[in-house]
């Protein structure tokens, strides 16, 4: 009898097949064995092809290459299989939509994100060569904000992240409700339509990052809803794998909070093909008006940067001095500023879901002094955020101003300041939204806190990262050059992947949640890997309401205690009281 030992030692060893796999191989019939060997040899040839052609082309390729090289093609094929990135390069006839425009720019794999900071610097330089920036001759700017014309429309990539196709019943939603058709598609359609219509006429493509496998018939619903000429690309089943609890987990699993991270790979992939990136959750309504407001204020900030001194005089008591309310700002400080937003909902039934009954002790003052010197009572304007066409999802079409509600900030966290004179005068008094912290003295931007009125007693100023006051936006927007500026100069741990430095753990999957990636903590806060960008909101009455974004699910009012629900009208009036107090302080 042949011993087991002699049988194992005498059998032919096949590369890669070891242990139990080798035992199974020995039991196969001759045909199956031949197929196994053929498969192994094919895989070896593929790896050799990839290593030889991939690395040789990598040494001579550039990020903005017009044609995909061999390295790109290999990575694109791998990404399509392993990351489920669904790209469409079909003809109009095969797509079944004669008026649809699918992505035509060169496709780089979202798996290929290993570019160094030197590569990013090259992107920044190549941008000016492409001629994307149309300068205003009266006020030349730094070039972070592109101007667009009818001949050269602004190119926008609208990225939407969605975790679930159907609601699970949590947080005030209806269990089993078709979220795709009731929320996702109506919001997407209306947002994109407003961007491409007059007076904005932006050129828009859509990229979806989904936490489920999108079936063809469900994808068709999205395609049919998008306006003509809008490109569509889908990365479905995009939830990353990782160790949810690295210290205890022994198996890889889907890290659902990491789905909100995936848009960073998309942005880096598409960086040189778009002027502006909007990155939001699936229930956030973003309009052409919001983009216009963001761009106009960003341009004004650039003008102020140009006119600002490189450094300020070194004063030992700054930033504690009262002059910080209106003190000159340096280029370094102004470069950290960008327009911000606040999420809002429409109160659906105040008998069931009333707003807060007791307001903070700051008075509500809706009397505003206009530029011509007259005083007029002005209310919060609900149109920019929350007026929608009839029968759009579950959204009431024309809510009143006193129906608009916020829940993620309040006057207690408000700091106001007067912007330096200069530019076109577009910016006057602004609100500094919470978030930045752990700043050096020459980076700190001072202002007047609402608590300085003395109405909060001995209470201290809330922390910069207080989740009840930080006003998570449900997303953010930025131009290409703003993103590169943040990556190279503002974000200590970088903005683009890979996330391999000390600021991140497990490629950014450990601890970092939805609020970090899409809510704004990574961009606007001073956490370990935060960028500390300072959001501002213009406090001119005609500007204020344009900083509010509609959270169309309207479910926060059903799941939060009513003392968190603050009417935007009251918020506007309380901030006006703080500004008037700050102006009095300046006269002392």
Summarize the structure.
The chain is of the alpha/beta class.
Essential attributes:
588 residues; alpha/beta; 5-stranded mixed beta sheet; 13% strand
Description:
The structure is a single chain. This protein has 18 helices and 20 strands. It has a six-stranded mixed beta sheet with strand order 1-4-3-2-7-17, sandwiched between helices. A five-stranded mixed beta sheet has the order 8-19-10-13-20. A five-stranded mixed beta sheet has the order 9-18-15-14-16. Strand 3, helix 8 and strand 4 form a beta-alpha-beta unit. Helix 3 packs across helix 4 and helix 6 packs antiparallel against helix 13.
How is the topology of this model organized?
Elements: H1 4-10, H2 20-26, H3 30-58, H4 70-82, E1 85-86, H5 92-95, H6 117-130, E2 155-162, H7 179-196, E3 203-210, H8 216-225, E4 231-235, E5 241-242, E6 253-254, H9 263-270, E7 276-281, E8 284-285, H10 288-307, H11 331-335, E9 337-339, E10 342-346, E11 367-369, E12 375-377, H12 383-386, E13 404-406, E14 415-418, E15 429-432, E16 448-449, E17 475-479, H13 480-490, H14 514-517, H15 521-524, E18 534-538, H16 541-544, E19 548-551, H17 556-559, E20 566-567, H18 568-587
Parallel strand pairs: 2-3, 2-7, 3-4, 9-18, 10-19
Antiparallel strand pairs: 1-4, 5-6, 7-17, 8-19, 10-13, 11-12, 13-20, 14-15, 14-16, 15-18
């Amino acid at each position: 009898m042949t011993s087991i030992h002699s049988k194992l030692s005498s059998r032919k060893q096949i590369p890669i097949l070891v242990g139990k796999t080798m035992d199974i191989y020995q039991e196969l019939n001759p045909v199956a064995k031949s197929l196994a060997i053929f498969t192994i040899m094919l895989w070896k040839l593929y790896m050799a092809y990839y290593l030889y052609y991939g690395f040789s082309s990598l040494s001579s390729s550039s990020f903005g290459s017009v044609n995909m090289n061999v390295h790109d093609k290999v990575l694109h094929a791998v990404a399509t299989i392993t990351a489920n990135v669904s790209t469409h390069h079909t003809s109009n006839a095969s797509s079944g939509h004669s008026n649809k425009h699918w992505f035509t720019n060169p496709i780089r794999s979202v798996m290929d994100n290993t570019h160094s900071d030197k590569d990013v610097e090259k992107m920044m330089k190549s941008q000016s060569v492409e001629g994307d920036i149309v300068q205003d001759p009266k006020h030349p700017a730094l070039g972070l904000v592109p101007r667009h014309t009818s001949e050269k429309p602004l190119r926008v990539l609208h990225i939407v992240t969605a975790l679930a196709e159907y609601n699970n019943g949590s947080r005030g939603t209806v269990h089993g409700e078709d979220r795709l058709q009731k929320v996702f598609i109506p919001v997407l359609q209306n947002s994109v339509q407003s961007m491409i219509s007059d007076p904005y006429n932006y050129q828009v493509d859509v990229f979806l990052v989904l936490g489920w496998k999108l079936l063809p018939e469900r994808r068709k619903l999205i395609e049919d809803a998008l306006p003509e000429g809008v490109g569509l690309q889908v990365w479905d089943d995009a939830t990353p794998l990782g160790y949810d609890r690295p210290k205890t987990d022994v198996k890889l699993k889907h890290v659902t909070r990491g789905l909100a991270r995936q848009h960073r790979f998309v942005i880096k992939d598409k960086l040189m093909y778009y002027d502006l990136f909007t990155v939001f959750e699936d229930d956030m309504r973003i309009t052409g008006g919001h983009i216009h407001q963001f761009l106009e204020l960003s341009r004004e900030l650039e003008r102020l940067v140009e006119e600002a001194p490189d450094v300020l005089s070194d004063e030992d008591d700054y930033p504690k001095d009262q002059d910080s309310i209106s003190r000159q700002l340096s280029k370094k400080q102004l470069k950290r500023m960008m327009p911000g937003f606040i999420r809002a909902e429409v109160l659906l039934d105040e008998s069931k879901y009333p707003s807060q009954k007791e307001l903070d002790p700051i008075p509500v003052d809706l009397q505003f002094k206009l530029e011509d010197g007259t005083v007029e009572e002005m209310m919060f304007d609900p149109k920019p955020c929350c007026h929608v066409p009839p029968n759009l999802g579950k959204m009431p079409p024309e809510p009143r101003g006193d129906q608009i509600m916020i829940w993620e900030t309040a006057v207690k966290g408000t700091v106001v300041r007067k912007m330096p004179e200069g530019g076109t005068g577009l910016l006057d008094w602004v609100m500094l939204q919470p978030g930045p912290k752990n700043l050096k003295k020459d980076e700190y931007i001072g202002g007047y806190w609402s608590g300085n009125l003395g109405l909060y007693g001995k209470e201290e100023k809330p922390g910069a990262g207080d989740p009840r006051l930080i006003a998570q936006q449900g997303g953010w927007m930025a131009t290409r050059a703003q993103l590169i500026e943040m990556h190279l100069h503002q974000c200590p741990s970088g903005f683009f992947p890979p996330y391999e430095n000390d600021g991140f753990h497990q490629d950014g999957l450990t601890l970092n949640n939805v609020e970090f990636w899409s809510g704004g903590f990574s961009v606007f806060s001073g956490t370990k890997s935060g960028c500390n960008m300072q959001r501002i909101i213009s406090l001119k009455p005609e500007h204020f309401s344009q900083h509010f974004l509609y959270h169309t699910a309207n479910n926060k009012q059903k799941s939060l205690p009513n003392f968190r629900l603050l009417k935007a009208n009251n918020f506007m009036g309380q901030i006006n009281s703080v500004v008037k107090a700050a102006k009095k302080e300046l006269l002392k």
